[in-house]
Amino acid sequence: xxxxxxxxxxxxxxxxxxxxxxxxxxxxxxxxxxxxxxxxxxxxxxxxxxxxxxxxxxxxxxxxxxxxxxxxxxxxxxxxxxxxxxxxxxxxxxxxxxxxxxxxxxxxxxxxxxxxxxxxxxxxxxxxxxxxxxxxxxxxxxxxxxxxxxxxxxxxxxxxxxxxxxxxxxxxxxxxxxxxxxxxxxxxxxxxxxxxxxxxxxxxxxxxxxxxxxxxxxxxxxxxxxxxxxxxxxxxxxxxxxxxx
Length: 245
Hints:
This protein is an all-alpha fold and about 240 residues long. It has 10 helices and no strands.
């Protein structure tokens, strides 16, 4: 007599709930992101036809929104990191963006946080050792990252992120490297006068590029500031030695 029994795969209640949370989070993120983008475009269009002069907070928003990951495939391994990165960007926008957009950015950050939590529950917790030395270094350095309005503060944040790239966990290098570059970009975006840069800020920017192993970008930046502010041949030679070490 033939055995007609077939194996049936059952999913636990926890697995079904987590899958549902992921789907809901993705749906909410998509809806709010689309609504915010539409609202932003409508607001900018409605104000005096064509807007040519952007405020400092609008420049920060544009720089950060350009870094948002879109069309994330939650079935792939990098989904957790992508949603976590978006969550941090929206949180940064909430702190440093325009006041009239804070509520929307708060909602987007919360929605991404829900997806991150759901995806995190699906990962094997044993794969993450929070007591690893590199993770301790990251946690310690992140305490020195500040909310910013001034270029020198953003440059300080950039240097901290680049230090994490240098001494933190290898799996997080790309994330913190991009965050360092974001801070450099924001620092330039909020600077009213390009020539209003001091030697400490120049040195900080060069050190950040060096830690990120972006020597070519460091040289380009040094050539730029040399033409803008002419900080002196001795100072330029000092920074050239830093880049080439």
